[in-house]
Amino acid sequence: MTDSEIADPERPGADVVSVAFRRRPVAPTPNSSEPPATKQVSFDRRELQTILNLYGRRVAEGEWRDYAIGFGAQKAVFAIFRRASETPLYTIEKNPTLARRQGAYSVVSADGFILKRGHDLERVLAVLDKKLKLVVT
User: Fold this and answer.
1) Exposure string (b/e) for 47-57, b if CB count within 10 Å is 16 or more?
2) Is the pTM of this model over 0.70?
3) Domain residues of the chain, as ranges?
4) d(CA 10, CA 12)
5) Span 90-113, mean pLDDT?
6) Are 86 and 96 in contact (CB under 8 A)?
7) Which residues pair with 117 in a beta bridge?
C-alpha cells in the first residue's frame, strides 16, 4: 500500500482505494481572489514593555482605566482611556516613515496636539510620567 492508497472500511468489497492528493500553491497566484499580505507596523516587545510599565503605574494611581492597541500599514497606536466609553486621553504612536526626520514616536493629546515627538520612546513617554514634588508646609 502506498501513501496515496488507503483502505476504505465502508466498502466491504474493496480492500484499497486510490486517493489523489492535490497540493495547494504556496504563494497566491496573480489570479487568486486572496488579497496580498500587507505589512503592519507594530510595537516590539521592548517598546510594549516600556509603555505598559507607565500604564501600570498610572492605573495603580487610579487615573487610567483602559487601553486599546491598533496596528496598521502606516502606524501603530496605543490609546489610553480614563473610561472605556470616552475618547482616548492620549495616544502613543509609532510611525516609521517619520523615523529619520522627527522621530518615530509621538504622544498626542485628546484634542490632537502633539505633546512630544522623538527617536527614543522613554524620553517621549516622560511627558506623561509625573514627577514627584517635595511640598514643605
Assistant:
1) bbebbeebbee
2) no
3) 45-125
4) 6
5) 90
6) no
7) 106
